[in-house]
């Protein structure tokens, strides 16, 4: 399932088993509740000024880089999870868990194809796929998505509030993928467009190395 917004420590453990297991240790099924499937398109392209002044964060362990806006901050527990969480507020990560709950931009890496990763991120027991489209981002194939959280139908569920909207891209280079996204709880729905705009730009800065 997708990473909980309050416990990133559990998320890093989950990443290791994401390809094989869904809730309760059962195989994660691809999302089947789809409200719409937009046609293939190109992702928004940034202008030279749109990411000017952004800071580049490089994860030397997983060999990728992503940039984030001026005045934003990033923190991690160590090199493995570097460049995963970003927010306008300063925060620290203690024992793998960030000391804030917003995390307005995330970039989670996994050694999986985008289709498998997307299916593992959003099992249909916990999420409704509102939109899903194939796009190209900086020459790499990607899935652009909008999903919402459901009441849990299994023994456990995501810790996002029911009705939370998640928006982002799963970008792939070969068998390596990065989920670049954001989220907004129902009470913060008015903040989602601004967060989506940041994601639309940040995803164009993703670079894979090695």
How would you characterize this protein structure?
The two termini are 28 Å apart. Strand 12 and strand 13 form a beta hairpin. Strands 1, 2, 5, 6, 9, 10, 11, 12 and 13 form a 9-stranded mixed sheet that branches. The protein has one domain: Protein Transport Mog1p, Chain A, CATH 3.40.1000. With 210 residues, it is of the alpha+beta class. The protein contains 3 helices and 14 strands. The longest helix has 11 residues, at 192-202.
Topology:
Elements: H1 8-17, E1 34-36, E2 41-42, E3 55-59, E4 64-68, E5 73-74, E6 85-87, E7 93-94, E8 97-98, E9 105-110, H2 114-121, E10 127-137, E11 140-149, E12 165-173, E13 176-184, H3 192-202, E14 207-208
Parallel strand pairs: 1-10, 2-10
Antiparallel strand pairs: 3-4, 4-14, 5-6, 6-9, 7-8, 9-13, 10-11, 11-12, 12-13
Summarize the structure.
By secondary structure, the chain is of the alpha+beta class. Helix content is 14%, strand content 34%.
Helix content: 10-25%
Oligomer: single chain
Estimate the global geometry from the Cα principal axes. globular
CATH superfamily: Mog1/PsbP, alpha/beta/alpha sandwich
Q: What is the gyration radius calculated from CA atoms? A: 16 Å
Protein traits:
single chain, 210 residues, alpha+beta, Protein Transport Mog1p, Chain A, 3 helices, 34% strand
């Amino acid at each position: 399932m997708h990473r909980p917004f309050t416990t990133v420590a559990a998320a890093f453990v989950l990443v290791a088993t994401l390809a094989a297991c869904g809730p309760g240790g059962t195989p994660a099924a691809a999302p089947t509740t789809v409200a719409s499937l937009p046609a293939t398109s190109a992702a928004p392209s940034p202008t030279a000024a749109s990411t000017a002044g952004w800071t580049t964060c490089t994860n030397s362990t997983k060999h990728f880089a992503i940039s984030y806006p001026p005045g934003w901050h990033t923190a991690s527990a160590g090199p493995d999870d570097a460049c995963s969480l970003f927010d306008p507020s300063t925060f620290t990560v203690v024992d793998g868990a960030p000391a804030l709950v917003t995390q307005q931009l995330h970039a989670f890496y996994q050694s999986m194809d985008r289709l498998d990763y997307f299916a593992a991120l959003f099992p249909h027991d916990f999420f409704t796929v509102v939109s899903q489209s194939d796009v190209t981002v900086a020459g790499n194939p990607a899935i652009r998505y909008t999903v919402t959280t459901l009441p849990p139908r299994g023994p456990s569920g995501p810790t996002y509030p029911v009705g939370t909207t998640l928006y982002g891209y799963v970008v792939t280079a070969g068998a390596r993928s990065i989920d670049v996204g954001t989220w907004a709880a129902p009470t913060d729905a008015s903040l989602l467009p601004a967060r989506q705009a940041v994601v639309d730009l940040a995803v164009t800065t993703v670079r894979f190395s090695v």
